[in-house]
Structure of Germin-like protein:
Amino acid sequence: MLIVVLLAMASSVVLASDPSPLQYFCVADKASPELIILTGYFMFPLLVNGFVCKNPMDVNAEDFFFSGLNMPGNTNKRLGSNVTAVDVKKTAGLNTLGISLARIDFAPYGLNPPHTHPRATVVLTVIEGSLLVGFVTSNPQNRLIFKVLNAGDVFVFPEGLIHFQFNRGHKNAVAIAGLSSQKPGVITVTNAVFESNPKIDESVLAKAFQVDKKVIDYISPEPVMDGQ
Amino acid sequence: MLIVVLLAMASSVVLASDPSPLQYFCVADKASPELIILTGYFMFPLLVNGFVCKNPMDVNAEDFFFSGLNMPGNTNKRLGSNVTAVDVKKTAGLNTLGISLARIDFAPYGLNPPHTHPRATVVLTVIEGSLLVGFVTSNPQNRLIFKVLNAGDVFVFPEGLIHFQFNRGHKNAVAIAGLSSQKPGVITVTNAVFESNPKIDESVLAKAFQVDKKVIDYISPEPVMDGQ
Amino acid sequence: MLIVVLLAMASSVVLASDPSPLQYFCVADKASPELIILTGYFMFPLLVNGFVCKNPMDVNAEDFFFSGLNMPGNTNKRLGSNVTAVDVKKTAGLNTLGISLARIDFAPYGLNPPHTHPRATVVLTVIEGSLLVGFVTSNPQNRLIFKVLNAGDVFVFPEGLIHFQFNRGHKNAVAIAGLSSQKPGVITVTNAVFESNPKIDESVLAKAFQVDKKVIDYISPEPVMDGQ
Amino acid sequence: MLIVVLLAMASSVVLASDPSPLQYFCVADKASPELIILTGYFMFPLLVNGFVCKNPMDVNAEDFFFSGLNMPGNTNKRLGSNVTAVDVKKTAGLNTLGISLARIDFAPYGLNPPHTHPRATVVLTVIEGSLLVGFVTSNPQNRLIFKVLNAGDVFVFPEGLIHFQFNRGHKNAVAIAGLSSQKPGVITVTNAVFESNPKIDESVLAKAFQVDKKVIDYISPEPVMDGQ
Amino acid sequence: MLIVVLLAMASSVVLASDPSPLQYFCVADKASPELIILTGYFMFPLLVNGFVCKNPMDVNAEDFFFSGLNMPGNTNKRLGSNVTAVDVKKTAGLNTLGISLARIDFAPYGLNPPHTHPRATVVLTVIEGSLLVGFVTSNPQNRLIFKVLNAGDVFVFPEGLIHFQFNRGHKNAVAIAGLSSQKPGVITVTNAVFESNPKIDESVLAKAFQVDKKVIDYISPEPVMDGQ
Amino acid sequence: MLIVVLLAMASSVVLASDPSPLQYFCVADKASPELIILTGYFMFPLLVNGFVCKNPMDVNAEDFFFSGLNMPGNTNKRLGSNVTAVDVKKTAGLNTLGISLARIDFAPYGLNPPHTHPRATVVLTVIEGSLLVGFVTSNPQNRLIFKVLNAGDVFVFPEGLIHFQFNRGHKNAVAIAGLSSQKPGVITVTNAVFESNPKIDESVLAKAFQVDKKVIDYISPEPVMDGQ
């Protein structure tokens, strides 16, 4: 035997794209070990666009199940909010199906800061407390569409637009959200612009925000410790 | 002037398809009057695939808003369940965005009977009470994938498969669901097979269910009064 | 070396999704051995959304070919009908191309029972004999759209709707159908609702059909032996 | 009243795109009069991507029906072949559903000449007679994949590739084909290259085919009279 | 006659979605007057997802043409850059075809500031001068992928990610870009976050950027005058 | 151990389809060795619909980069033109993103001969020189839409239609084009119809072009040596 191959599949291995699944479900195969290819001295994972499917005969109810969305998330963080996502990583049966759920907890004055989901619209309903929410439309209008939501209220944040949710009250707030992707992705503006790795050239940011470089320094003095 | 045309747009007028909207949102224009075309003696509505968009300049926060999802639905019906859908008909801002929410209320022993959503996967979380839920896979296996859910539990019902939720307990149950379409559509098996208008030929049903025509008569003696 | 990996690819291995193939064809590679991953003590097939492609250089006319659609299918079955599908399993060249053909044979009084194809519209033309055909629209109208077809007649069964074809005459009937998927999938209502494995709880079915549990027992006394 | 508007809808008016219809069907509204907009002195039809939908309440079985596919087409033409298409123009119920049927008749030595359907794969089965069929793969291989088909044989012509069917025998031949679009479109090579209106500059064609301009003249001396 | 209707079509009227056009082209009908519906006292435009198609018989070469992409854009603006887009608004023939071009001019030290195109990937090639370009990946890595480009260099900015181009030199720079949508849309971070209308609550921004409200005031003291 | 498997991935291995990537980018993994499966005596590559993704952690700016589009291509060929494509094979970061660029060089009287891209619309801008360009619409009109382009002019060639570009002048010409696919594919009419391998039966071509077989012989006397 000259060459031996080890295939171990990373939990992030992806093969299927979103639209038009070719079977009723294609449960992500999280039980599989990391798929690594050893060829002589090289070793690398097989990563593709979507997750591989678990053998339909081995699929069971647990693959479509998640437990604990009634439990508060930990909001003891810099921004006072926490997102518990029930996406394809948590519930493998969501693979290829174009939807996920999330619970968002807010401490008093907790903020889910300005961010976008380029692959998902969010529809959110407030379960408890009150939230100031909003999104901003694209150039050139840049209109802020905002609303204060109370329990039972529902709000839509269209795919690709920058949006936020802010708990202005002194009590906790809780929301449940549906997202139109099993793997929505998140781009938080502050993280992307001021806390990238490496950082964006200060000249670029100073010019973009039309401020002195010192202000850019002040906003972004050191790496992030936690965050959304 | 020989011909005068009246265009009044039905609130169900649809122009946009699901994938790849060409703007960030296309709020369904529910405020527009019915669009009717009068040509001489004829008059007809303009119906297409999706809803027309409201002028973006006239869009406001109300278009993305719905209120009252914390209110119990009326379960005093034949099957003891009620679905409150927050879809494009209720929240015009969902137009083209591929997602909706729903609240499902169950009286004790209430049933959301076997049905399919050909355009949507459902992800449901139990807010209160307990539910027996399940879906059946396609031919030839026809496996029943089922689970008893309690508060905080989440379950996935893949697009196109027949599924149900049943409250086996003597208390009310409540669930919140995300659906992967702004206009999911529902085909309830009993309605489609036994209560269509007109009814399917008894010979067909007797042969399909491999029973005597009397049984078909027994199951389907008269038109439905309410239902999902 | 601690771990050795065996990759053998199941003939049902699927990698490509329906829309927008990236080459002109992607012939399903049915000649490949089962792809199995042996990691220590575990062994499992690699299943994804669609079929892998045969090397384009090895593709030949046989991959796009099927023979025998002029041969009557065996209708000596419980329901007196037989479907001969020319789909991606039979003709590998259909992979990713979104279409398949089928021949349906009906013995006298043969029935293709109420069923749906969640991934395909059917367009059927009668070659011989006569058929009562119909489909039922969704909630809340549940209209039955039906027609008696004779040789040369064509009828459309829209994707996702429950439909049937019934040979009411005492002669054989034959139809040729085009389906808008290379792998349409079938959900037969009686199989899914009364003959699932395990069976759906009788309480659910009795309530859904608004009949006594004895009727459910009568309809579904034992497992199916054959069927569509 | 300064301006009067006349809306009359052309039978070719199109509003819906192919993927993901938002209702189960969207029957093309062929009964509607031409939709024309008169604004002052201007008058123009409203043409969009797909057909408008007939009111679902007015839809009936005739919308999903076509009759006469058992009738031979007229092959008394220059190339000795005839295509009878059952597409959205013939059967309005096919609108948005992504499939159509066709019957192709061939006189002895009749030819369906090299052409492409950029929006559809063809799956064809021979009902009667014998056909030489083939398609050519793309650059740089340009492989001809061909086969002689007899009754009951099926062949696939992948979307976008140039293909032909030729009756080499002295008897008639008949085929039934499924196409993966309700409106496939046809580009016949000879029509597009040698018979366009106006004609392509002879210098271009002479250089492309690496022949003298006289040969181009010889091939394309005058406008086409009939053809596919 | 009680009601008279005026239909005048806005040049921004949109009917077709991106994927799978149903004809080879669907030229946006810019020549049509505004489509306005007058019903008694109300008057509103018809806006949908995409543009209506010009009558194919009236289409000519001008519909697929744009002139002047060799002319420098005006960079005498706050940020020293200018984008000349050849999109569906400029070249109506691009309607439904999923692509557009752009020329970007940079004065010395000119910046195309951090922004996203949620519906388009950009592929850019430098024609003249030198540019520092980059994009930032999503949470949680937020990696900055950057490069200095010179004439003849090409760089890809994936759909949905925040990116920028900066002319660090003292000479002009010019780039030509392809974008994967006929109507890409732009969200400039500074405009959306600091210059929306109305402005986002300072408490939200101060918390998001983890700075004092005075810094937010400093960055965003007054409305924008020009910009990208 | 009876069977040993070697997986080495061909650089043309394809896994992802065009629409809706599930991450922001999925860089084609060109660095991976050929993926070959050895099962006993058989050995074959794994080919699927799209390319596998490089590990996101290993992605760097080079993956999104191409250099040299300012360099003239070699036009010393039969037709006097040369296409330099910056597609997914050249720039791996284009994988799944639906766009590519190309530079086309024309010697005096150079021709990019009649061809189609079944998966891409082309938008071309002339950088230098002058070009006669055109495309032909589908049956039955077969209209030639043409234009003479000079520097700074832009023209659109809709997906699937036969088109050409011809340098009628005695100076070189250069164009830059955007294409709406990362892997557009090319079918050149003369190659497909007269130079396929094996050749199309002369009877078919003589009948299609309505000429004597000698003319077909004259046009296609021997295999192609170079070409587009």
